[in-house]
Amino acid sequence: MYMRKFLLFIQGFFLFFLTKSLISEELIKLPEPRFKSNISLEETLSKRRSIREFSQQPLTLEEVSQLLWAAQGITTSWGGRTAPSAGALYPLEIYLVAGNVKNLSCGVYKYEPKTHSLVKKLQEDKRIDIWSSAWRQPWIKNASILFIITAVYERTTQKYGERGIRYVHIEVGHVAQNILLQATALNLVGVPVGAFYDKALKKSLNIKEDPLYIIAIGKKK
Ligand SMILES: Cc1cc2nc3c(=O)[nH]c(=O)nc-3n(C[C@H](O)[C@H](O)[C@H](O)COP(=O)(O)O)c2cc1C
Questions:
Q1: How far is the CA of 118 from the centre of ligand 1 (A)?
Q2: Residues 6+ away with beta carbon under 8 Å from 97
Q3: Cα(51) to centroid(ligand 1), Å
Q4: What tens digit of pLDDT does each residue of 144-154 get?
Q5: Is 187 a member of any domain?
Q6: Is residue 7 scored above 60 in pLDDT?
Q7: Nearest atom, ligand 1, residue 195 CA
Q8: Nearest-CA neighbor of 42 among 183, 221, 172, 181?
């Protein structure tokens, strides 16, 4: 009797994790990005500011798509991206923490530049967890979305050795600035955040890569 119960429990346990992993690998094709805008680069540069207050109006999937394209979108037939990368080795990965996006359920998604799509990794709204990993900075939990830019250092250090670490850190700045400028051009607001506990953030996102930067984005208040 006990053995039967135990076996049923084990079976249920495995089924739960199998279903969860199947659901969490859902692929979401993003809307095509736009390549034209009504605002000039110069105006965008002069308007960019770190803004830490957000309205609770949701972002659209089009806006999220545009921001991800600005971060790491592919712009050439050989795979060149919007941001430069030493040796075109692309050591950075972008995670989207969605909390308030129209037609996108709360969760953690990984951006796939090759297909311009999102792969769902976790189902829950992780903003509160991340807020507590980031010194409880209020803008982390109030933002509609968070981008977490992470690094796989070996992609660059296997070619450039120690100096590759410097290159990865330079690259994250390129990507962050692309996101922030694109947000400004879309009339969105945001702030880059470097103050967080790496270990805690890695745990909340259940990732192996090293998190380097959080970019909090939302609509203007
Ligand atoms: C590497 C880096 C880390 C930052 N970390 C934080 C942070 O943890 N929290 C925050 O509120 N702002 C953070 N900021 C934003 C700066 O405070 C902001 O850029 C600065 O005050 C200048 O304002 P501006 O961005 O409006 O020009 C960071 C900026 C950089 C470049």
A1: 27
A2: 107, 108, 126, 127, 130, 145, 146, 147, 148, 205
A3: 10
A4: 999 999 999 99
A5: yes
A6: no
A7: 8
A8: 181
Total tally of structural domains belonging to the chain: 1
With H, G, I as helix, E, B as strand and everything else as coil, classify residue 51. coil
Q: pLDDT digits over 55-94, tens only?
A: 999 999 999 999 999 999 999 999 999 999 999 999 999 9
Residue 192 Cα to ligand 1 middle (Å) = 6
3-state secondary structure of 194: coil
Give the pLDDT confidence of 51-61 residue by residue, as tens digits: 999 999 999 99
Q: Is 45 in the pocket of ligand 1 (CB under 6 A)?
A: no
Whichever domain contains 122, its CATH number is: 3.40.109.10
Q: Is residue 13 part of a domain?
A: no
Instruction: Specify if 10 maps to a domain.
Output: no
Q: Whose CA is nearest to atom 31 of ligand 1?
A: 192
Residue whose CA is at the smallest distance from ligand 1 atom 17: 50
| Strand ranges in the chain using DSSP code E only, listed in sequence order | 27-29, 54-55, 92-98, 107-112, 117-122, 145-151, 188-193, 210-220
Q: Tell me the pLDDT band of 18, cut-offs 50, 70 and 90.
A: very low
User: Can you give the pLDDT at residue 3?
Assistant: 57
- Ligand 1 pocket test, pick from 191, 197, 213 with the greatest ligand atom count within 8 Å of Cβ, gives 191
Distance 5 CA to ligand 1 centre (A): 55
Query: Ligand 1 centre from 105 Cα, in Å?
Result: 29
**Which residue CA neighbors atom 25 of ligand 1 most closely?**
50
Domain boundaries, position 91? 27-220
